[in-house]
Amino acid sequence: MKFKYLLKGIVKSIPGIEYIYNFHRKTGGTNNARYCYSVWLRHLMMAHENGINSLPVKIAELGPGDSLGIGLAALISGAEKYYALDIVRYSNVACNLKIFDELVTLFKNRTPIPLEAEFPNIRPALTNYDFPKQIFTEEYLKIILDENRLQKIRNSIKAMDVPDDSGKERMLYYRVPWNDVRVIERESVDMIISQAVLQHIDDLEVTYQAMNEWLKKEGLISHSIDLKSMGSSDSWDGHWSYSDMEWRLVKGRKNYLINREPYSTHIKYLHDHGFKILCDKKSRAVSTMKNEAQLAKKFKTMSGEDRTISGTFIQAIKQYFVSLSLVVEEFGNFIPAF
Ligand SMILES: C[S@@+](CC[C@H](N)C(=O)[O-])C[C@H]1O[C@@H](n2cnc3c(N)ncnc32)[C@H](O)[C@@H]1O
């Protein structure tokens, strides 16, 4: 079964193939305003359920993909600043303006949150998909949907590709690729969000550390993490059967694939980097590995629980600041990529 993926990988590894074949044309998902609306409102509803009653003023998103729609929905909801950090420039002004106007209409119509039937892959599932009137009261909607405010967001979208060295404050910063923790000021943001992204990030521990640095104390992280093989195998957990060498082949010359870290790695990094977990909604699947022998050497010690967790939705707050020097101390020669 692996053979097909290894063969494809060999083709994807040919030097120069990335100039002929664009591996990263689109991500799917955020090119649809209803998807972005659904994702944003789910994260927001979950935050409310977890006792976070104020809306974030400054927000950052990892891996927005095709459009900045999730963050634009956050701006419409009242945020004043949004940092979008990606490693591939998928998104452009025209697409963001279109998604933005569609999002505004969804808010103006007090549209219910799109159901699982429409987006079966979005996690988490909610118990109530009504438009959240408890968060967006009529008075509040009047303020956030004021035409001058919306025009200000539109202007920020139009300026998203203009270098921001003017020192002038903006509502939106699109940083691609981001490779320096200083892309966001230390202890400045209220919320960091991602949807189907953390499983792709190679420097995962450095990213958890960066999130600790960027967040204000008690700031919230909200991540939906898919731990499945994402098309790299016939089975949902087949990615754990490849040796490192085979995996390098499967990845080929793509900028990113998946980092293959199991659930417990995320939990460890959350603890190591000063976060207190508020909710952890795991999705489970039956392991297709008949025995340990089918797992690659580095995954043989994976716990039984890790082998059956196919994804999770986690919200956590920053409890304390972890200095980067402590991480360096603990990990000896560990030097972050930025
Ligand atoms: C599966 S797509 C998800 C896109 C979008 N969040 C959605 O819900 O449709 C994964 C995204 O993660 C981004 N990504 C991969 N590695 C990253 C990194 N180190 N930092 C930020 N984004 C990254 C990819 O470029 C891509 O935009």
Topology:
Layout lengths: L1 H11 L4 H4 L12 H17 L8 E5 L6 H8 L4 E5 L7 H16 L29 H7 L2 H12 L13 E4 L13 E7 L8 H11 E12 L17 H8 L11 H10 L2 E10 L24 E10 L5 H7 L8
Parallel strand pairs: 1-2, 1-4, 2-3, 4-5
Antiparallel strand pairs: 5-7, 6-7
Helix pairs in contact: 1-9, 3-4, 3-5, 4-5, 5-7
Bound molecules: S-adenosylmethionine.
S-adenosylmethionine (SAM) binds next to loops.
Overview of this structure, please?
The protein is an alpha/beta fold. It has one domain: Vaccinia Virus protein VP39 (Rossmann fold). Helices cover 33% and strands 16% of the residues. It has eleven helices and seven strands. It has helices spanning 2-12, 17-20, 33-49, 69-76, 93-108, 138-144, 147-158, 204-214, 244-251, 263-272, 324-330, and strands at 58-62, 81-85, 172-175, 189-195, 215-226, 275-284, 309-318. It has a seven-stranded mixed beta sheet, sandwiched between helices. Helix 5 packs antiparallel against helix 7. The longest helix is centred in the first third of the chain and has 17 residues, at 33-49. The protein is globular. The site of S-adenosylmethionine has 18 residues, from loops.
